[in-house]
């Protein structure tokens, strides 16, 4: 049976250490959270982020947008937050209402306050494998932290990332590439047979497509590392994109859902928020 990559336990340790760092720094980080309160998922995740932030000494401010809000109106909110010196981090919870262009909003956040690393500047730094301080999207960065914690080094490995969203797949592929894996980025237009052929040889598989049981144990190589970024609800229960029961005996390492990548996303966001406050204090 594969080793379970326990994101819940690791994130607890990271948050404890972060709470100490925030306290010792004397900083007062404040995270502004722009979100659509009519979206059930956003309400749930924003609530989880706020509670976790409070525990480590990071203040939060909610900005709930109306369902009929326009891109222009959200750009104005972001411009005001950029100019507010008491706000050290800005998070725009995706998705915003349909009429809003999320990517335009992410890129309007001042790079120093873009704690989710989703704006064009920070993504450009990541894709260029630049040195220096910049935030990386919380989910893929959390995956890398988890791999490092369990001594899983992507160097020289074949990695397959399934899903190419801005929040997960694109930055995940860039991080694995920067860590010297050979990376395939599969997506909804990848023919099924091509995906199955890629999976058969993959040492590391990271999947986030939002389809329960999209990947099953018979499709993966013996000893593969399996990371499940999927977050689906089936019969009222959180479920990933990997059929855990059929995959756990073939994998060398595997993340559960819940308790794997999700908690790491939140811990990483808080670390990025602290780091942003620290960087702004140095300027
Ligand atoms: N601006 C952003 N928007 C969104 C992001 C993001 O990183 N930045 N990610 C997702 C959702 N997400 C955080 O926002 C998130 C999803 C799930 C979890 C989590 O801890 N899940 C638990 C299970 C929860 C449950 O029981 O329902 C787990 O996996 O253990 C954290 C964060 C969308 N938007």
Explain what you see.
One of its GO terms (cellular component) is cytosol. Belongs to the tetrahydrofolate dehydrogenase/cyclohydrolase family. The chain has 283 residues and is an alpha/beta fold. It folds into two domains: 26-112, Leucine Dehydrogenase, chain A, domain 1 (Rossmann fold, 3-Layer(aba) Sandwich), CATH 3.40.50.10860; 138-261, 3-Layer(aba) Sandwich (Rossmann fold), CATH 3.40.50. Helix content is 43%, strand content 16%. The chain is built from ten helices and eleven strands. It has helices spanning 7-25, 40-56, 71-83, 102-108, 120-127, 138-149, 169-178, 192-201, 244-247, 261-282, and strands at residues 3-4, 30-35, 59-64, 89-92, 158-162, 182-186, 204-207, 225-228, 232-234, 237-239, 253-254. α1 (7-25) packs parallel to α10, α6 packs across α7 and α6 (138-149) crosses α10. The chain binds the ligand Nc1nc2c(c(=O)[nH]1)N[C@@H](CN(C=O)c1ccc(C(=O)N[C@@H](CCC(=O)O)C(=O)O)cc1)CN2. Ligand LMY7XDAE binds next to α2, β4, α6 and α10.
């Amino acid at each position: 049976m594969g080793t379970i990559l326990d994101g819940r336990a690791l994130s607890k340790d990271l948050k404890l250490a972060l709470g100490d760092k925030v306290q010792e720094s004397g900083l007062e980080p404040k995270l502004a959270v722009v979100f659509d309160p009519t979206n059930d998922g956003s309400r749930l995740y924003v609530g989880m982020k706020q509670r976790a932030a409070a525990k480590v000494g990071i203040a939060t401010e909610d900005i709930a947008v109306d369902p009929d809000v326009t891109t222009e109106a959200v750009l104005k909110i972001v411009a005001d937050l950029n100019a507010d010196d008491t706000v050290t981090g800005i998070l725009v919870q995706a998705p915003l209402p349909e009429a809003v262009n999320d990517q335009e909003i992410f890129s309007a956040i001042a790079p120093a306050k873009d704690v989710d690393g989703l704006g064009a500047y920070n993504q450009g730094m990541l894709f260029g494998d630049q040195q220096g301080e910049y935030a990386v999207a919380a989910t893929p960065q959390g995956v890398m932290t988890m791999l490092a914690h369990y001594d899983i080094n992507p160097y020289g490995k074949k990695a397959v990332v399934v899903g190419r969203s801005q929040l997960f797949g694109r930055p995940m592929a860039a991080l694995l590439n920067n860590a010297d894996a050979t990376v395939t980025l599969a997506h909804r237009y990848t023919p099924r047979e091509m995906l199955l052929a890629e999976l058969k040889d993959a040492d590391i598989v990271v999947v986030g497509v939002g389809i329960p049981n999209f990947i099953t144990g018979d499709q993966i190589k013996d000893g593969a590392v399996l990371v499940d970024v999927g977050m689906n609800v089936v019969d009222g229960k959180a479920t990933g994109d990997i059929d855990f029961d059929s995959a756990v005996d073939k994998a060398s390492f595997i993340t559960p859902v819940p308790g794997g990548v999700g908690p790491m996303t939140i811990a990483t966001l808080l670390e990025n928020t602290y780091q942003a406050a620290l960087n702004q204090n140095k300027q």
